[in-house]
Fold these 3 entries.
Entry 1:
Amino acid sequence: MVGGLMYDPSDAELTELRKRARLLCEAYNSTSVTEEERRGEILKELFGGIGGNIKIEPSFYCDYGGNIYVGKEFYANFNCVILDVARVEIGDNCMLAPNVGIYTATHPIDPILRNGGREYAKPVKIGDNCWLGAGCIINPGVTIGNNVVIASGAVVTKSFPDNVVIGGVPAKIIKKTDG
């Protein structure tokens, strides 16, 4: 699954891992704003790795959690969804606005294969110093360079280099920055 091969999401082990993640997300989302320490403990248990000083506003949802790796100084605003069937790496000093979706899960294009219930995934990597605008979507297999700003509502279907502002559906380079 993590290696990008077809897998059966109804597998008992995967079902249990998703259940664990759902319970941790449920616990996280029910915490109070005064429970920062508890929130940190839950995220450390949920994520594969945390570089330090992470803050996520509830509500937050993910598939497995253990495939999510974030760097230092990470912030995600309300309603973040990360479908981490494959690895999701987010660098240092990154900010996610409300309603950002990062998706690694995908399905076969062929309807017969798709209706068979098997899936596959492609990893997502986001560099350092990135700002993802409200409601943007990062699709499977995308790599975002360092110092990238993604405009609100963008649908990112391909990878982009360092030092750019991207936006649109599908996303394209709007301008280059000094970085």
Note: The CA atoms of residues 6 and 86 lie 12 Å apart.
Entry 2:
Amino acid sequence: MSLTVDDPFALFGEWLAAATESEPNDPTAMALATVGADGMPSSRMVLLKDFDARGFVFYTNLGSQKGRELLAHPKAALLFHWKSLRRQVRVQGLVSAVSAEEANEYYASRPRHSRIGAWASKQSQAMEGRWVLEKRVAEFAAKFGIGEIPRPEFWSGFRVEPQVIEFWKDGAFRLHDRTRLERAPDGTWSHAVLYP
């Protein structure tokens, strides 16, 4: 029986909720693929922090490799794989920055040490040794003391607005269920069932 998908975001929400119950670690983990200046693909794991009909949101240092690549080439692919459920979701889409209000709200919700870490880490840059990072953490902890820790200008979020979403569910004898949805310019979704 093939997957029936009327609303891809509703189905994604159901699958994410099930993964939250069954995955031992990080059900929001997703592989993020970007394109570098040399045209080569690059991928890494990041954590989904929000999603709705506008897209899938994650946060990072804008000076990191992924931040630089997304600012230069605002397209990305995501992959969610929930091994415990034997399901995956693939996403391809256009990338835009979240609003300052969204970034501020999420940043304020992070643990204090994570907010200090955002200031201390020159993400993706080479460093002489771990002691350099630890020293920077101590310096920023002293700088902010027990006061507020504002969001750094160089730290924000991106939203991947899906143009394509594919749902995959494991089937017996490798006869998996695959359903691909593609968004039309008017916002409606076309639907295709794919061979596994």
Note: The radius of gyration is 19 Å.
Entry 3:
Amino acid sequence: MNSKAVVIPGGKYRLEWSSRAASASSGLIVSVASVVLALLFSGVFIALNGLNPVFVFETMARGAFGTAGGLSETLVKAIPLLLCGLGVSFAYRISIWNIGAEGQFVVGAIAATAVTIYFPGMPHWSYLPVMFSAGALAGGVWGLLAAVPRTHFQVNELISSLMLNYIALLLLDYLVFGPWKDPAGFNFPGTPMFETWMQLATFGTGRLHLGLFIGLGGVLVYWLIMYRMKWGYELRLLGANPEAARHAGISVTKQILLVMLISGGLAGAAGMAEVSGVSHRLMYSISPGYGYTAIIVAWLAKLNPWGLIVSSVLCGGVIVGGYSVQMIGLPASMSLIVQGSILFFLIGGEQLRSYRVRLRLTSKPGGE
């Protein structure tokens, strides 16, 4: 067990900390505490704007969960968050920091749209399966673009996956402002609307679509792989102790490539679900930051498959609630403050969870 100490100024006390194994129950406590502290922290900024924080949070909650329409819209936002959260969780399981879910989401949406543009004569029933496959494959390939430099050239995947986000976003801008721009769209930066058979079916008159079942199916598969299959055990071993995994005959390079392919594929599937189920066209700013918010979703759930459902709905509710507070004089970016605060306290809580801290009386003044 690694331990360190520092003498408090004055020499009478010293602060000691040592690493320790984190328990599952402490992870749940950290997640709940992070949300509570984030709300308290955000409340300070709300109060500085002259509003009652309790009233603002009540407004956000009512807007996201208080009506059938609000709950439906929250679930709409939760679908891409859940799929992207599954993707980054898959990678984090083996300690691969995939920060590129945003770019993988975008290229998935682009690839799905390409099917509608370049293959107009396919049978109607074939569009959705082909669009889903194209979106998932494009996202997976985008994930491999960060994985290959990591496995073959020791390039940090955190940097490469992050930079690939900007390439994907610039590609999106080029397409919707350029060759794919709808000539009948009144100069709007977007493609022509998809035909009905290219759109995911919705429930009732709202925007909630069949992508919900894609996300829930992904959670089930993730759970089966991680907790019911030998491969999942190998992945968890690789994440906990890479050296032990190597000695057990597990190919680290192969696993990283395969996991990043799947991780990017899930984010790409989220892009397909968004463009086919919600916007029904590829357009500028198709994502309000789903890939980045998915990092919070994964950390809040502690990579637990069922926890991902809860955290994605919570973060979706924060986004929808952010729209609600515009009616009382706050910008929709209030939701970004809450999300950022949650991530901040999650990271801090994880550090505290991983270390045991003690304050001891020194044996002699100035001594250690």
Note: The chain has one domain: 52-329.
